[in-house]
From TrEMBL:
<protein>
    <recommendedName>
        <fullName>hydroxyacylglutathione hydrolase</fullName>
        <ecNumber>3.1.2.6</ecNumber>
    </recommendedName>
</protein>
<dbReference type="InterPro" id="IPR035680">
    <property type="entry name" value="Clx_II_MBL"/>
</dbReference>
<dbReference type="Pfam" id="PF00753">
    <property type="entry name" value="Lactamase_B"/>
</dbReference>
<dbReference type="GO" id="GO:0004416">
    <property type="term" value="F:hydroxyacylglutathione hydrolase activity"/>
</dbReference>
<comment type="similarity">
    <text>Belongs to the metallo-beta-lactamase superfamily. Glyoxalase II family.</text>
</comment>
<feature type="domain" description="Metallo-beta-lactamase">
    <location>
        <begin position="92"/>
        <end position="251"/>
    </location>
</feature>
<dbReference type="GO" id="GO:0019243">
    <property type="term" value="P:methylglyoxal catabolic process to D-lactate via S-lactoyl-glutathione"/>
</dbReference>
<dbReference type="InterPro" id="IPR001279">
    <property type="entry name" value="Metallo-B-lactamas"/>
</dbReference>
<keyword id="KW-0862">Zinc</keyword>
<dbReference type="InterPro" id="IPR032282">
    <property type="entry name" value="HAGH_C"/>
</dbReference>
<dbReference type="InterPro" id="IPR036866">
    <property type="entry name" value="RibonucZ/Hydroxyglut_hydro"/>
</dbReference>
<dbReference type="Pfam" id="PF16123">
    <property type="entry name" value="HAGH_C"/>
</dbReference>
<keyword id="KW-0378">Hydrolase</keyword>
<dbReference type="GO" id="GO:0046872">
    <property type="term" value="F:metal ion binding"/>
</dbReference>
<dbReference type="InterPro" id="IPR050110">
    <property type="entry name" value="Glyoxalase_II_hydrolase"/>
</dbReference>
<keyword id="KW-0479">Metal-binding</keyword>
<comment type="pathway">
    <text>Secondary metabolite metabolism; methylglyoxal degradation; (R)-lactate from methylglyoxal: step 2/2.</text>
</comment>
Length: 336
């Protein structure tokens, strides 16, 4: 198992370079994708184009979120509901099961392993209808083909920009598209940087964001295939979303991210308080994900390049572009 972002980064970097020759070592990942266009006959009605928005290891855990359809409204109301179940996988991955209770439609985001996902589905009596992939890394697509064999009618949804590296992809989505899970609209952002084809899923009615490895609690993904300017552009799309949005990222990196964040923004009282809460949770073996986007805006140094304190600690002044400050923070984290 890969137990730190830096170790995982070195592994994934070498893996990405060797992906085209690694079929024998990683057969699921290297299987040629079975592209059937942008949608199957069953899913075509659930797929359309829309304008971009303006604006612990341990047992699985579920939460149900309700939200107003208004982007800036409170997380209450009866317009829609999404049940989200955390499924820990590998050493630090979180896979997310999503269920729209009115229709009973169920999806899984970035399934790393088969057995934890199937066990949780069986425990709840759910049948899988869709697989949502954010990017091609093996710890996000590792169970695609096995789940498809187990649930033949489920659709595999993934980034159009990276269709050749998503095992079994059937529904290709990208910036401005939306897909439906029952009555709930799932909007798509292109968020390249960690990988060139990374996407993020947002369920506005439920105030739920699934950013894969683009955004972490108190962190962001390493830049394997993108530039700092590109990654900052991707993160800026997420910054425009409402503060109440819950961020269901894909890894439990928060404690390590908090230690680094304190070196960049040491005089931020909200960050200091959050670090104490994170450390206390991890000491008890509790998960620190999801967070809220409001928390991330206030405490995540990768989302705060405009803060004078962050600029000062990075040795950059007011004339520097935000993406340049972000680049300095990302480079510092890579060395941390």
């Amino acid at each position: 198992m890969i137990r730190s972002e830096s170790c995982r980064a070195r592994y994934l970097s070498s893996f990405c370079l060797a992906a085209t020759t690694a079929a024998s070592a990683f057969p699921a990942l290297c299987t040629t994708a079975a592209i059937r266009g942008s949608a199957t006959s069953n899913s075509r009605a659930a797929f359309r184009s829309c304008a971009p928005p303006r604006c612990t290891r341990g047992t699985s855990t579920s939460t149900r979120t309700h939200a107003s359809t208004a982007d800036c409204g409170p997380m209450t109301g009866d317009c829609g509901a999404l049940e989200v179940v955390r499924v820990p996988c590998l050493s630090d991955n979180y896979v997310w099961l999503l269920r729209e209770p009115t229709s009973g439609r169920t999806a899984v985001v970035d399934p790393a392993e088969l057995h934890p996902v199937v066990s949780e589905l069986e425990r709840r009596g759910w049948v899988l209808d869709a697989i949502l992939n954010t990017h091609h890394h093996w710890d996000h697509v590792g169970a695609n083909l096995d789940l498809k064999r187990r649930f033949p009618s489920c659709d595999i949804v993934g980034p159009r920009a990276d269709k050749d590296r998503i095992p079994g992809i059937e529904v290709q989505v990208g910036e401005g598209d939306s897909w439906h899970l029952g009555s709930l609209e799932v909007r798509v952002f292109d968020t390249p940087g960690h990988t060139r084809g990374h996407i993020t899923y947002w369920v506005p009615q439920a105030g739920a964001l699934f950013p894969g490895d683009t955004l972490f609690a108190l962190g962001c993904g390493r830049l394997f295939e993108g530039s700092p300017r590109q990654m900052w552009s991707s993160l800026s799309k997420l910054l425009a979303l409402p503060d109440h949005t819950r961020v269901y990222c894909a890894h439990e990196y928060t404690a390590a991210n908090a230690r680094f964040a304190m070196t960049v923004d040491p005089d931020n009282p909200q960050l200091a308080d959050r670090k104490m809460r994170v450390d206390a949770a991890r000491a008890k073996g509790e998960a620190t994900v999801p967070s809220t986007l409001g928390e991330e805006k206030a405490t995540n140094p990768f989302l705060r390049p405009g803060a004078p304190s962050v600029r000062k600690n990075m040795g950059l002044g007011p004339a520097a572009e935000d993406w340049e400050v972000f680049a300095a923070v990302r480079a510092a984290k890579d060395r941390f």
